[in-house]
Amino acid sequence: MASIAADMPIAPADRREARIAWILAAPAITLLFLFILLPTLAVIILGFTDFELGYGGFRFVGFENYAELIGDRTFRRSLWNTAIYTAIVTPVSIVLALAIALLIEAETRARAFFRTVYFLPVASLLVAMATVWQFLFHPTIGPINTFLGYLGISGPNWLGASGTVLYGLSIIGIWQSVGFNMVLFLAGLTAIPRELYAAAEVDGARSWFDRFRLVTWPMLGPTTLFVTTISIINSVKVFETVKTLTEGGPNKASEVLLFTIYQEGFVYLRVGYASAMTVVFLAILVVLMFLQYRVLDRKVHYA
Amino acid sequence: MTAHSLTLGRMLRFGLLSLGALLFLAPYIFMISTAGKAQSEIFSSSLSLIPEQWSFAENFTKALSRVSMPTLLMNGVIVCALIFLVQVVVAIPCAYAMAKLKFRAARIMMVLVMLGLLVPIHATALPLYVAFDRLSVLNSYTALVAPFSISVFAIFLFLQFFRAIPDDLIHAARLDGMSEAGIVARVIVPNAWPAITAFAIFSVVAHWNDLFWPLVVVSNQDFATPPLGLLYFRAAEAGDDYGALMAATLIITLPLVAAFLVAQKRFVEGITMTGLKG
Amino acid sequence: MSILALRGITKSYAGNSILKGVRLEAGDGEFIALVGPSGCGKSTLLRIVAGLDHADNGEIVIGGRNVSSLAAADRNIAMVFQSYALYPHLTAGQNIAVPLAMRRLTAVQRFPFIGNFLPGQRRIRADIQRQVREMASSLKIDHLLDRKPGQMSGGQRQRVALARAMVRRPSVFLMDEPLSNLDANLRVHARGEIVELHRRAGVPTLYVTHDQSEALSMADRVAVMIGGTLLQLAPPQDIYEDPSHIEVARFLGQPRINVLETRLDASGLVRFGALTLAAESAPPAETPVLIGIRPEFVRLSARPDGILSARIERTEFLGSEVIIHARLDAIGETIVARMTPAEAGGLSVGMPVSVEIEPDRAMLFAPAGERLPAKTVAVASVPEKAYG
Questions:
Q1: Could you report the predicted ipTM of this complex, rounded to two decimals?
Q2: Which candidate, A176, A142, A173, places its Cα nearest to that of A157?
Q3: Which of residues 31-90 of C touch B (CB under 8 A)?
Q4: Is C13 left (phi over 0), alpha (psi -120 to 50) or beta?
Q5: What is the mean pLDDT of chain C?
Q6: Which residue in A79, B44, B197, C29 has a CA-CA distance of 20 to 30 Å to C213?
C-alpha cells in the first residue's frame, strides 16, 4: 500500500520526459518515414511490378524483372563498367591520397597551400569541372593530346573511343576524390602520438620505411578502412561525369549503374524495371557496409 | 643521416608536391586561360596559357546571355539554404532527445538512423518521383528540397556531438529553470557551433554539387540549380564554343570555390569531422 | 524543525538495487555531509533530491511540501556540480544571472532581440545585474564577471558555480563533490570558505563527498552511506567515536580501524589480550563477534608482557605520528598502531613487541556488522615475570 502510494507521484516525471522526447523527435521520425523508409519499401515493392509512368495500372510480376535483368546486356555491361571504374579509382585515389598526405605531413613549408590545392577539386562543382576535363581531353584541340604530341605520341580520343572512355572518366574520378581522402588521412596522421615515432626510433626502426611499417600504417588502419569503404561507395555512385560527358557512350562503353537506372526510370519511365535495378544497387551498398563492419569488428577484437 | 641527404630528400619531397599541385591545378589554369581566348585561338591547339587576344568580355557576355546565370546561382543559394535550415531544425531536437532524454524509442531510432545512412537519394528517387508527379509538385523548390529535409547523417553527427556534452550542464540548466526546448535553444545550440558549421559545409557542398535529383524533378530553367543549368548551357552550345563554355564554368564554379578559399580551414575541418564520423 | 526530509527512497537500475529505502532529515541551516565509497549511491540520492532522477519509491519533502513529483526547476533547489557545469558559451556574469532570468523574466521577455523592447524587462534586468554584482563581490569574483569559463582556473570556476547556486536563495543546497577537481592546497582552503558561505546563507545543505576528512571537518552531521543504505547519521565526533556499524567504523578513520574476529565464550564474555569485554545485550554464547580497535588506542611496547605479543612488520613515519604494522603471534593477523614519534622511539622492523589496548575503547560488532553495546569489565594484571 505504502509503496503504491509513493509510486504514484513519481512515475509521471519519467512519462513527462518521454513525452517531451517524443515531441522533439516527432518531426524527424515523420520525415524519416516519409522520405526514407517508405520510398525504400516502395522501391522494393515496385521492383516486383511492371509499373510504367504514364500507364494507369500495374500488376505484380514476381521476379520477372530480375529474370530480365540477368539477360539484359546493357545492365550487365553497366555492372561490369561500374566494377572496372571502381577497381581503378578506389585504389589509385587511396594510394595517391596517402602519399600526398604523408608528403604534406612531413613538409614544413607551404603545408596549407598544398592542402588547399589538392582539396580544391572537392569544393568545385563536378559538372563544371567535368566540362573543363572534356576540353582537356579533346582529341584535337585538347591540351593533353597537344602535350603528348610534343612528345611524339599521338594521343587517343579519350572520351570518344570505347577503349579509353572508362580510363578518361577514371582520371576525372581520381582527380576529384584524392583531396577528400587526403584530408581524412591527414586527420588520421595528426592523431598518431609523436611518442610512438620516438619509441620506434629508440627500438631500432632506423629508416623512414621501417617507421611507416611499424607505426604509421597500423595506426592508420581504421582511417584506411573508412576511406576505402567511402571511396568504393562513391565510385559505385558515379553519375555526374557520365551524364555530363558521355551519356553512357560511345556504344555503351561508359554505361554505369546509376546512369542505367536513370535512363530506364526517368527517360524510358519503366519504373518497375528500374526499381529492380535500384534494389540491386542498394544490395551492393548493403554488402559493402556489411563487409566494413565485419572487418572493423575483427580489428577491434583481435587487434 | 647527413645534412646533405636531408636537403636532397626535402627538395625531392617539395618537388613532388609542387608537380602534383601543378597537375591538380591544371584544369583550373586551362579553364581561366581558355575563357579568355577567342574561338580561333582555341582551335589552333597551342599550349600557351596567355591569350593572344583578350576575349574575356566576349566569352563572358555569351555565357551570361544564353542561360540566366543569376537565376541559376540564386536557385542554388535558395535550395542549399532551405535544405540546410530544415535539416538542422529537424535534426537537432531529435538528436538531443536521443542523446540526453530517456525514452523507449531511442534505440529503435538509432537503428532507423543507421539504416537511413545506407540509403542514398538514388535509391529512393523513383518512388519519390512518382509521388511528386502525382502531387504535381515537380518543377518547384518543394520538390528540390523536400527529400533532403531529413538528414539521418545530421542526426548521427549531432548525436555524437551531443553525447560529449556533459550531463551536468543539462542538469544545471534544468535546475536553473529551463524547459527542454529552452535547453536545446540556449545551451545545446550555442555549444554545438563546431558541429553545426561542419554539417553546414558538408550539406552545402553536397547539394550545391548534386546533379541527380534536380535532373529528375526539374525540367524547367526557372528552377534549375547550377549543375543542371550548366547541362542546359552545354546542350544549347552544342559543346563546341569552348571559350563561352569555360566562361560559364568559371562563373558557376566560382562561388563555392571562393567560399572555400575564404574559409578553407573550416572547410577542411568540417569535411574531416563529417567524414570521419560518417 | 526539518526543512528537508527523505522518506524511504528506493531506486534500482536494470535490476540492481542502488538505494534501499534511504531516510534522512535535515534541520534548518544544517550542513549534512553524505559520505561513502564510490558506487554507494550517494550521487544518485543527490540527483533524486534535485529532481534530475526519479526514485522508484519514497518521497522527498522540502519545507513541509512533498516535491517528489515536481520537476527539478520547481523544487527551488540549487546545486553545485562536480564539473561545475558552467555554460561554456556564457560569461561568468551571464552564468550567475541565468537562474534569476529564468525565474523572473517571462519566456517572451527572454526572447532574443524582441524581449529587449518589452516593457518592464529593463527594470528586472537591472535588478538581476545588481544581484549578480552583489553575489560576485561577496565571493570576491567581481573581476571575473566578463570572462568565459574557458578563461578561468579551476578555483575560479568553482566560485562562479557557487555564486550561480547561491544567487537565487534556494531552500535547499546540494553539492556534488564540488572540491574534487581542485588541487590539494586549494581544496583545504575552499572547505573553510564553503562552511562560511553556508553559515551566512543559513540554508540546509546536502554535501556529497567520498573524502572522509572533508565530511568530518565541514559537516554538522555526517551521513555514511554504504551499498545503498544509510548506515548512520550523526555529528562528526559521535560517528567517529561511536559508529553503529562495522562498515561505518571501517570507512571513517585513517589508517583504518583494526578488526579482529573472535568468539563469545560460554559466559558471554570476549577476551582479547588483557581486556575482557561483556556484551550488554548478551547474544547467545559461542557466537562469533568482531572486535574493532582504532589504531590510536593500540600501544606497542618493546617489553614483551606475555599476554598479547606481536612482531613489527612495517613502520611508516608521517612526521607528527608513526603508523606501525605488527603481526600478532597468536592469530597471525596484522594490527596497526598509531603512535607519536616519541612513543615509537625504540621500535624497529622485526622487533618482538607486546600489544596493549586502551580500556573502554574496544568496540564489539556482530558478524553482520551491527554494533553490540559492550563495556570493558576487566583488565588483566600484567604478570610479574614480564618486568623481569
A1: 0.84
A2: A142
A3: 47, 50-52, 71-73, 77-79, 81-90
A4: beta
A5: 86
A6: C29
